[in-house]
Amino acid sequence: MAEQIVEPGRNTPVFGHYEVVVLGGGPAGIAAALAAGRRGRSTLLIERYGFCGGAGTAAGLSTFCGLHAVVHGRHEQVVHGIADDILDRLRVMDGLNTPHLTIRDQITALSYDISAFKIAIDELLAEAHVEMLYHAFGVGHVMRADARDNLIEAVIVETKSGRVAVRGDLFVDASGDGDLAAWAGVPYEVGDGAGNMLYPSTMFRINGVDPGKAGRAWELIPALMDEAEAAGRRFPRKKPVVRPQRNPIEWRANVTQIKNPDGTPVNGIDARQLSYGEIEGRRQCWDVFQFIKSVTPGFDNAYIVEIAPQLGIRETRRILGEYVLTDADVLGCRDFDDAIGVNGWPVEAHIKGDVKFVFTPPDSRGFNQIPYRIIVPQRIENLFVAGRCASMSHEGQSSARVSGACFVMGQAAGTAADLALANRLKPREVDVRALQQQLQRDGAFLGPVAKETARAAQTSQ
Ligand SMILES: Cc1cc2nc3c(=O)[nH]c(=O)nc-3n(C[C@H](O)[C@H](O)[C@H](O)COP(=O)(O)OP(=O)(O)OC[C@H]3O[C@@H](n4cnc5c(N)ncnc54)[C@H](O)[C@@H]3O)c2cc1C
Question: How far is the CA of 304 from the centre of ligand 1 (A)?
Answer without folding.
Answer: 22
